[in-house]
UniProtKB/TrEMBL annotation, chain A:
Coiled-coil intervals, chain numbering: none
Membrane-spanning parts: 12-38, 50-68, 109-127, 133-156, 189-210, 222-242
Protein's name according to its UniProt entry: Transporter
Record has Nucleotidyltransferase as a keyword: no
InterPro entries: ABC-2_transporter-like (IPR010390)
Keywords: Membrane, Transmembrane, Transmembrane helix
The keyword Transmembrane is annotated on this UniProt entry: yes
UniProt superkingdom: Bacteria
Automatic annotation (TrEMBL), chain B:
Keyword set includes Membrane: yes
Domain of life: Bacteria
Transmembrane segments: 21-40, 60-79, 144-172, 181-203
UniProt entry tagged with the keyword Transcription regulation: no
Entry keywords, A to Z: Membrane, Transmembrane, Transmembrane helix
Name of the protein described by the UniProt record: ABC transporter permease
Pfam families associated with the record: ABC2_membrane_6 (PF06182)
Gene source species: Streptomyces ficellus
Amino acid sequence: MWVRSTMTYRFSFAMTLLSNFAATAFDFVVILLMFSQVRSLGGFSFAEVAFLYGATGTAFGLADLALGQVQRLGRRVRDGTLDTLLVRPVPVLAQVAADRFAPRRLGRVVQGLAVLVWSLVLLDVAWTPLKVALVPVMVVSGWLIYSAVMVAGGAFQMWAQDGSEVANAFTYGGNTLLQYPPVIFAQDLVRGVVYVVPLAFVNWVPALYVLGREAPAGLPDWAAFASPLVAGLFVAMAGLVWRVGIRSYRSTGS
Amino acid sequence: MRLYAAVAAGGFRRYATYRMATAAGVFTNTVFGFILAYTYMALWDERPGLGGYDMAEALAFVWVGQALLATCGLMGGGFEDELMERIKTGDIAVDLYRPADLQLWWLSVSLGRSGFQLLGRGVVPMAVGALAFDLALPEHPLTWLAFLVSVALGVVVSFAVWFLVALSAFWLMDGAGAVQVAWLSGTFFSGMLLPLTVFPGALGEVARLLPWASLLQVPADVFLEKRTGWDLMEAYAFQAGWAVVLLLAGRAVQAAATRRVVVQGG
């Protein structure tokens, strides 16, 4: 239904799809502008940064396409419309995700994927079957990790109705962080996203292995293959948080 | 006049009510400030003096940007959703019958909001940034005042842009596309992602002439004491010029829109 309703305003849809593509593209234009001034960033070449960018961008775009609406849950809690979803015999999460489903978000996926493919062409890597297989595994794991973070962020808003921006710090903020090589950040920050909130498994850990570089924050080499495991843990935890959130939800009563 | 002052005060109070949202915003601004600051450090390590800024100035630019993000409405003026919703539902017809001017009303709301955002979301990230990094801060105390004037002008330009965007709903009905275009331009051409002085060649020249430069690039340069004396007056004239042009355009569009207003719904 939401797909059909979006198509009603064709001009607007075309504009949003295009601008969604451009929105993420501008992100990448900044990296291009940076590399128009320098040859490398923290010792990483343009192709290597593009690889990091494409991997996190695609994963984030896929999660955003499926679950982007969950971050607007705070509004539903505030105006009480979450109650309507609770009485329907369909999982609340599925309803929230489908509500106002926006196909224009495809723009983000397409853009991320385009940069990823481009970087694969440019990269100078000694490919092994293992490295080749790791690329799709990385994207899918990243997708799951971002999805889990979005669900947890949505659940958080059942307590803090106005807190959607905190979730943004982890989703959009994480996406921006992972676009750049870990060496340029303070090592405490890197340890934080490896051991505390393991966002690093979206792309940093597997991507550095593919690029033949040292793993961040003193991780062993085999950690590059741990992304699916981390994603599984993330998803399980997000499911738990979501359930606790739903159970402790109190209607605004208006 | 008293009416609009009351509306502005209402705008201030309204945003002050959402304490959780403000805290969340401060948190996000701070996180982004850190991420940007490190990327800038990597960039300025490689190319010291890039764009005419030294490292401390580039870092100050990052945190001024985070402080002004909400104040100058780089990613949204905070009122356009509501105004567009009123146009879409037809409630706008009621507003037009009120004994208050539509543009001045929303400008007052917007000024009140920006005033709160500067205090609520601007001061803390700036302070955190100054503690965590070695920032270039103004040497003359008067620079702070000059900076505030520039920010105020930026706020008016931002309002004028978002007002035009909101009015596009009269024609497009669904203004989501226009909002996104404005949001994009706001982040990219204000200098939020990268200072406009770093943009190469013609792109940089054009970007520095567009209205969005008033929202961050100009106030930041005033803050960094890149624009003093006559240069400061020129900076103000640039911002005020855009404010007048865009406000007048808003007037014209408002007049055209009210002539063709089609009330939807009941």
